[in-house]
What we know:
Strand content: under 5%
Structural class: mainly alpha
Number of domains: 1
Number of helices: 11
Mean pLDDT: 85
Largest sheet: none
Radius of gyration: 18 Å
Order of helices and strands: HHHHHHHHHHH
Low-confidence stretches: none
Distance between the termini: 23 Å
Helix content: over 70%
Amino acid sequence: MWAIIKKEFKSYFLSPIGYIYIGIFLFITSLLFLVETFYVGSVEFNYMYSWTSLVITFTVPILTMRMFAEEKKTGTDQLLLTSPRSVTQIVLGKYLAACAVVLVTMLMQFGYFIILTFFGEPQMASFLVSLLGITLISMAYIAFGMFASSITESQIIAAVISFVVFFIMLFIPSTNNVVGSLSLSAALSNSFLIGTLVLKDLVSMITFSIVFILFTIIAIQRRKGSK
């Protein structure tokens, strides 16, 4: 599986995709950091990351649209499906490679924290909880985007499916029912971004990721079985 992770991770930076994802995310957060620090005078992170859900709604589909759709369209997916590696290894390898790109982006966020130490005393715990929430919701969205890519051979369709679902999720209110559990953006805003770690929200994000990883494995397994 490590070989798949390494290959997929390198592919993000041998094409513009990885740079586009990181560039857009850093551009938006840098603008918000500038406003919050130099114009508002705050050393907190809740405002800076308040638009995170909207940012990843647009950027994650860019990161995930090609994961399986491109290989299906070009026919190179047959090399993977006939390889000695299991479908689970292939799916997890691709998923973890995309998550690694997210982690690289999150590591860059520490630059903001270091800068803030020259202007005040930012709370490390609050900052880390915010980053954890952003990372988890990004990983959850990657899981869905990967699933969308596994059910079509068009990268554009995969990206549109992901974008539409993520956009709808922005407006789902946080409730205790099944539909409310899909409100990952609300969970991010109402807990993680204010420095509070809520078990229910943590479990929701992790469960969402696991469910769509499993759906992707099933989708690829069915395609492999039909060949």
